[in-house]
TrEMBL record:
One of its GO terms (cellular component) is plasma membrane. PANTHER family: MFS TRANSPORTER, TRANSPORTER MFS SUPERFAMILY. The keyword Transmembrane helix applies. The lineage of its organism: Bacteria, Bacillati, Actinomycetota, Actinomycetes, Streptosporangiales. Coiled coil: none annotated. Its main location: membrane. This is Predicted arabinose efflux permease, MFS family. Residues 29-406 form the Major facilitator superfamily (MFS) profile domain. It comes from Thermomonospora echinospora. Keywords: Membrane, Transmembrane, Transmembrane helix. The chain crosses the membrane at residues 25-46, 66-83, 95-113, 119-141, 153-174, 180-199, 219-240, 260-280, 287-307, 313-336, 343-366, 378-398. Pfam families: MFS_1. GO terms for molecular function: transmembrane transporter activity. It is found in: Cell membrane.
């Protein structure tokens, strides 16, 4: 087992001795958790464009529209300090069930009300319980994954989340945005996500009520660089999803070309996760993390060079999407490698909080850069941020290299 630096406490560190489930019982539970999370993300992918279209159709002011959009990230932030106590008091399974049912109910309530003001608390609640769902599924998948396969399992898990998120908008094009159909379809997703968990409940880790919990603020100093990586990955994800098409249009691409660039980037975040996870099971994970940050910076720096060549631009955004999304995946892998039990729950909650912060900061920062510097502000912002992340990770790895018992970063 690799040791952490400098937090080598038995409360925080994980090893295979804490997994008492028979190996054969682990695999159905792993499949169930991954399937449940991916089905749930279909609802996310459907909900974002659905509500945006309805708000625009209703002539809602830009201020109220922006406030509505901010409610879900705010709910995720509010959930971060509450998730660990909830898991401790109710147990992870009950938290997941209550959260899935509540999200379905909130979405149906939005469909019934159809007015932007009551949507505010409903979207806040969706964000809160959405975060609770991912705290439980991220914790479960990490506790279930055998150490020697952790990178590959988390790579597939992350890829499935991206697939689910991409399927949502595609389904919306089939059912449309009018009437009850999109809301009923969206509400069916979290309910359907319950089924795999119910079928494998006995095989799921039962961390929770029997253990003393760890508060969010107690975890924060244990892995600052991992949290930095999660925030940077969220910054990139939300910024690129929002503004890559605009960058492509400003550089002279057609609307079809701009949309194709976004699809290609998402495809990279799906296709490259398993290969990167496979590598993470064979070489140093901290080195992989630093390499992905550097690759993200390099690809961003090359965007202005390749944007006018369809083949080169497609290859760049494909690799770029995989590289920045892998930063989150590898951070999750390292989290599960080092922490278990209450510390792992608190770490998953902290990841959710940093994802919310990074996601809220990314689009306005990149948008401001493009307003001040033109289209070139888009790649420049990514290049500078991820170059700084890569240098920070590389320096941390270099400091730990003389210590043969530790190749960890945080």
């Amino acid at each position: 087992m690799r040791s952490d630096d400098p937090e080598d406490s038995p409360v925080a560190l994980a090893d295979d001795s804490h997994d008492v489930r028979p190996r054969r019982a682990v695999w159905p539970a792993i499949v169930a958790v991954a399937l449940s999370a991916s089905v749930f993300t279909v609802m996310q992918g459907l909900t974002y464009p659905l509500l945006a279209v309805l708000l625009d159709r209703g002539g809602v002011s830009e201020g109220l529209n922006g406030l509505n959009a901010a409610m879900m990230p705010l709910g995720m932030l509010l959930a971060a300090p509450a998730a660990s106590p909830l898991v401790r008091r109710l147990g992870a399974y009950r938290v997941a069930v209550v959260s899935l049912v509540t999200v379905a109910g909130c979405l149906l309530a939005i469909g019934a009300v159809r007015h932007p003001l009551p949507w505010l608390p409903l979207r806040l609640a969706i964000g809160f319980f959405l975060a609770c769902i991912f705290v439980t599924t991220d914790t479960w998948i990490n506790e279930l994954a055998p150490e020697r396969l952790r990178g590959r399992i988390l790579g597939l898990y992350s890829a499935l989340l991206s697939v689910g998120f991409a399927v949502g908008p595609a389904l919306l094009t089939l059912v449309g945005t009018r009437g009850w159909a999109p809301f009923l379809l969206g509400a069916c997703c979290p309910i359907a996500a319950l089924l795999p968990l119910m079928l494998t409940r006995g095989s799921l880790p039962s961390r929770g009520r029997q253990e003393e919990g760890m508060r969010l603020r107690a975890f924060l100093p244990l892995a600052p660089l991992l949290l930095l990586c999660v925030g940077a990955a969220a910054f990139a994800d939300q910024g690129a999803m929002s503004l890559l098409p605009l960058y492509a249009l400003r550089e002279g691409l057609s609307e079809d070309g701009a949309n194709l660039a976004l699809v290609t980037m998402i495809s990279g975040s799906i296709a490259l996760m398993y290969p990167i996870g496979w590598l993470a099971d064979r070489i140093s994970r901290p080195v992989m993390l630093a390499a992905c940050a550097l690759l993200t910076a390099v690809c961003a720096a090359l965007l202005p060079v390749g944007v006018h060549s369809p083949g080169a631009f497609g290859a760049l955004v494909f690799v770029w999407g995989g590289a920045y999304y892998a930063i989150y995946t590898l951070s999750l892998v390292i989290l599960g490698e080092r922490f278990y039990g209450p510390a792992l729950v608190a770490g998953s909650a902290a990841f959710g909080a940093l994802w919310g912060v990074g996601g809220m900061i990314g689009p306005p920062v990149i948008g401001t850069s493009m307003r001040l510097l033109g289209p070139g502000g888009f790649p420049l912002t990514f290049t500078l941020i991820f170059l700084a992340v890569a240098v920070t990770l590389g320096a941390a790895a270099a400091r730990s290299r003389p210590r043969p018992s530790s190749d960890h970063l945080c």
